[in-house]
Amino acid sequence: EQEVVSGVAHSRDEAKITLRNLPDIPGVAAQVFGPLADHAINVDMIVQNVSADQRRTDLTFTVGRADLPAALKVLSENAGKLEGVEVQSSADVAKVSIIGIGMRSYVGVASKMFKTLSEKGINIQVITTSEIKVSVLIAEDYTELAVRALHTAYGLDRPEGE
Amino acid sequence: EQEVVSGVAHSRDEAKITLRNLPDIPGVAAQVFGPLADHAINVDMIVQNVSADQRRTDLTFTVGRADLPAALKVLSENAGKLEGVEVQSSADVAKVSIIGIGMRSYVGVASKMFKTLSEKGINIQVITTSEIKVSVLIAEDYTELAVRALHTAYGLDRPEGE
Ligand SMILES: C[C@@H](O)[C@H](N)C(=O)O
Ligand SMILES: C[C@@H](O)[C@H](N)C(=O)O
After folding, report:
1. In angstroms, how far is CA B159 from the centroid of its own chain?
2. In what helix (H) or strand (E) does residue A127 lie, and over which residues does it extend?
3. Which of A19, A20, A22, A85 to mutate to test the pocket of ligand 1 (most atoms within 8 A of CB)?
């Protein structure tokens, strides 16, 4: 069973914004991100799950912390105005990612990441994936603990003196 | 404003599984994916959003359609047994992705994707992102329409005869 993880990346410069109860109809995602793009606000992760009731769903995205006030202002003037929609945010998060090349045993890599974090009592707030990366958002206080635990779990610890 | 999108990818061989009301505490994601990894079930997208009530959250992942029965069986014997948890699934989805290299104007690329799909009346069910890719799940019937519309939007249409 080949280890295919090449690295652990992390970023503390993350703030999460969640729009609750977005109408789940065509055009809404565009209403969220169009104005953000027009204001050149850099967005990192975007996560939206399946609607539970075919009517509303939640959407979370992250920005650098310095961009949080600007992003919230843009939302308040646009999608944040949609009826029933609530905007929540927090800068108290960090993004931690497992990077692998050609992760054929992808689910094994993801499952090990989730298990390792849980063994340290670290709650996973958001999960998003691509073929080469599994990324999570966790509370910022746990960043160093998470990164160290993952380095050890995937055998990426550096030898002494390196 | 530089176009940095290099391609549109799509896969109809996708089935989505959503676990509703997972307890949002450490160890739960591991309980979902550990058994799937043990049964060598290939997982593609994994999407989890922030809990709305600090107690429960939903998690969606996709598998190839042939793996759907096996995945559902594994879940029914594991995380699907957690109190209050509901497992929903559908094979009527397709994954469509925009691929870019060094997407500096990332939010612009994502916003254009969402706008293009909405103009064709295509609802976006799931969104997940990485630095080089924005992926969505849509109803499978709309796959070809979505891919053609995105090719046109990003100027990727092939010249006649190619
Ligand atoms: C919620 C949002 O993604 C909506 N479903 C849309 O297509 O724009
Ligand atoms: C829901 C699940 O991701 C949970 N928060 C965990 O850490 O495992």
Report:
1. 30
2. strand A126-130
3. A22
Contacts of B80 (CB under 8 A, 6+ apart): B19, B87
B93 near B41, Cβ under 8 Å? no
Distance CA B60, CA B160 (A): 40
The pLDDT of residue B104 is: 63
C-alpha pair distances (Å), A7 with each of A72, A84, A134, B9, B115: 33, 41, 11, 26, 35
pLDDT tens digit sequence for B72-131: 999 999 999 999 999 999 999 999 999 987 666 688 999 999 999 999 999 999 999 988
- Parallel, antiparallel, or unpaired: how do β-strands B86-100 and B133-139 relate? antiparallel
Q: DSSP assignment, residue B94? A: E
Q: With an 8 Å Cβ cutoff, are A111 and B26 in contact?
A: no
pLDDT at B141 over 80: yes
